[in-house]
């Protein structure tokens, strides 16, 4: 199972069935709706575990202990991975793997990872800019702004400007040509912001560089994780000799 738990929506992909869940990230403990993930951070791990059990428990036979691959933000990723592993235990996994969301997005597009690549993930509550080199994270920035912040006070232009500032900061602090090469190659844009022309138009004008909107940007991360899961299935390093929980970062 590939799992992408965002602040606004949770998506899951199951081998042989494709995307089986695409729902709001919310729990109902009896006192109203509660959002266990906020601004890219898991703030209610038990609630997140209950949500996963409610959404996915019936999709997994009791006799099966699945391999689960979870997408994670790059920044604050250590804390997120630890909390995500605890929450995913509700699914009785045999193995838990994690992948940076930005790499999942790149894999979903079939991007060439042999060279530098910029990925901009503009979600509902968080925007993350990541520089990948040979598929590995080299630099990353984030801002606690997303598409659901757009209103009369926060405009599309301001959201685009915040994203552009992160990319510009990468360029200025990079003593190599990697960031510039990646920018000239074209930044991959995913998340809800990729579907907002008022955002993409401002961002393109601000960067003076190509902007490549990924196909089906909302589900790119979970689809990329699914591709990586295919590669991981059956690999000896991902299968523990006895049932248990392992993590490959």
Task: Give a short summary of the structure.
The protein is of the alpha/beta class.
Shape: globular
Reported for the largest beta sheet, the result is: 6 strands, mixed
Q: How do the strands of the widest beta sheet line up side by side?
A: 3-2-1-6-7-13
CATH superfamily of the largest domain: ATPase, nucleotide binding domain
CATH-assigned fold name of the largest domain: Nucleotidyltransferase, domain 5
- In angstroms, what separates the terminal alpha carbons? 16 Å
Note poorly predicted spans: 238-249
Indicate the percent of residues in helices.
25-40%
Strand content: 25-35%
Task: Please compute the radius of gyration using only Cα atoms.
Answer: 18 Å
Number of strands: 13
CATH class of the largest domain: Alpha Beta
Structural class based on helices, strands and sheet pairing = alpha/beta
Instruction: Report the total helices.
Output: 7
List the domain count as a whole number: 2
H/E element order: EEEEEHEHEHEEEHHEHEHE
- Please tell me the CATH architecture of the largest domain by its name: 2-Layer Sandwich
Instruction: Report the mean per-residue pLDDT as an integer.
Output: 89
Q: What would your notes on this structure say?
A:
The protein is α/β, with parallel strands linked by helices and 249 residues long. The chain has two domains: 2-102 and 220-248, ATPase, nucleotide binding domain (Nucleotidyltransferase, domain 5, 2-Layer Sandwich); 112-215, Nucleotidyltransferase, domain 5. It is 33% helix and 25% strand. It contains seven helices and 13 strands. The chain has helices spanning 45-56, 77-88, 101-109, 156-173, 178-185, 197-207, 220-232; strands at residues 2-5, 9-14, 18-24, 37-38, 41-42, 67-72, 95-100, 117-122, 127-133, 136-143, 187-190, 211-213, 247-248. The protein has a six-stranded mixed sheet, with helices on both faces. The chain has a five-stranded mixed sheet with strand order 10-9-8-11-12, sandwiched between helices. Strands 4-5 form a two-stranded antiparallel ribbon. Strand 2 and strand 3 form a beta hairpin. Helix 3 (101-109) crosses helix 7 and helix 4 runs parallel beside helix 6 (197-207). The chain is globular. It starts with a strand and ends with a strand. Residues 238-249 have low confidence and may be disordered.
